[in-house]
Amino acid sequence: MSFYEQNVTFEDVRKIVGGYVTATYPRHHSMKGLVVLVDEDGLMKRLPDNDLASIICCTPLVGDAVIVRNGGEDFLSLTHQDVFDIKKILTELKEVYGRKSETSVRHGRKRTLRTAKGS
What we know:
The chain is α/β, with parallel strands linked by helices. It has one domain. The chain has helices at residues 10-17, 51-57, 80-97, and strands at residues 2-4, 21-24, 34-39, 65-71, 74-76, 104-106, 109-111, 113-116. The longest helix is centred in the C-terminal third of the chain and has 18 residues, at 80-97. The protein is globular.
């Protein structure tokens, strides 16, 4: 998982996910107000599964994912508390689901769950 210190623009997100962006929302109560962004055409492109993003959102997701704070029309950087909560949730989920790493490796490509952290 990668954390970025700067704000991300919509164009930044498109470059990270590799295409048109679609949003899905985490189901965990402490992630309220956050949004997970992925490639809208990821399934048609046959991108590898992103297990962590799928678990967080309780829906199958593929390819790279970016977590940002939902600012209505804008994407906002995560707060320090958001980052802390995400790390805690991922640690708990890995224990429950037996995840050995923070990334999913399928088809020889590493998929990451990225977040944008505010300063």
